[in-house]
Amino acid sequence: MNTAGEPPILEARNLVKTFPGQAGTRAVDDVSFTVGRGEALGLVGESGSGKSTTARCVAGLVRPDSGRVLIGGQDVTRARGRALRATRRRVQMVFQDPYSSLNPRMTVAELVGEGLYVHGIEPDRARRRDRTVQILETVGLGAEHLDRYPRSFSGGQRQRIAIARALAVGPDLLICDEPVASLDVSVQAQVLDLFCDLREKLGLALLFIAHDLAVVHHLCGRVAVMNSGRVVELGGREQVYTAPEHPYTRALLDAVPVPDPAAERARAGALRPVPAHHDPEETR
């Protein structure tokens, strides 16, 4: 969390984003939130709620129509050149699909070490290789993996490589766009525990996008709920999960499966309908 007088690592102010052909519908509609140093904020909602578009606006992959993104108190919404490169070093992204986010023609050493070279952190090849080993060890891999290609790894291992690549440049904020959604359930918990360890050991801030409320509850101290491009509820984890104020949040919680079949059947009649939405960026 922030110390007194310290600006948040991330501040999104009144972000708006529309896409052509959507009849003026806003994929992101006046969205504001902050993420403090070492904090994990969960951004949750159905597919099409606008959460992934919001993440891409924050990461600089999509330019918002209006609004501002501040990193460490500096407005980077229209950053160019050196300022943009500095921002990209401070903010890194981990994507949902580790199969498509890693270049299959690059070895692990090249994938993780590329950022060290591009940002001028370690231009010497031998020292860069040593530094890459240290980063891999941080995510539970090692030197024996350096010269292998992504195709030789499992999904969980590939996501660890993607996380190592993001960590290589020493970011303040990781934006995680459904990073465990494509993994087996048994592997999801391991990757979530890794994110918890990284946040505690490195002081990383996390903006964690998910539709699985159980995943967010495990990792995040605060939760922002999105519906139709807007943040409809924002608060501490326990407050949002135990005493939700917005009907949409209650509908999401009602839809979470209950392990007891009898309890699930008893609850089924009380479930509220959840409207469907479409955000073109969610499917990109």
3D structure, described in words:
The chain is α/β, with parallel strands linked by helices and 284 residues long. It has one domain (10-100, 172-283): P-loop containing nucleotide triphosphate hydrolases (Rossmann fold, 3-Layer(aba) Sandwich). Helix content is 38%, strand content 21%. The chain has helices at 51-59, 81-90, 98-101, 108-118, 125-138, 155-167, 185-202, 213-219, 237-242, 247-254, 261-268; strands at residues 10-18, 26-35, 40-44, 66-71, 74-75, 91-94, 173-177, 205-210, 222-227, 230-236. Strands 6-7-8-3-9-10 form a 6-stranded mixed sheet, sandwiched between helices. It has a 4-stranded antiparallel sheet with strand order 2-1-4-5. Helix 4 (108-118) packs across helix 5 and helix 4 packs parallel to helix 6. The longest helix has 18 residues, at 185-202. It is globular and about 55 Å long. The relative contact order is 0.17. Pfam families: ABC_tran, oligo_HPY. Residues 263-284 are annotated as: Disordered. Belongs to the ABC transporter superfamily. InterPro entries: AAA+_ATPase (IPR003593), ABC_transp_ATP-bind (IPR050319), ABC_transporter-like_ATP-bd (IPR003439), ABC_transporter-like_CS (IPR017871), Oligopep_ABC_C (IPR013563), P-loop_NTPase (IPR027417). GO terms for molecular function: ATP binding; ATP hydrolysis activity.
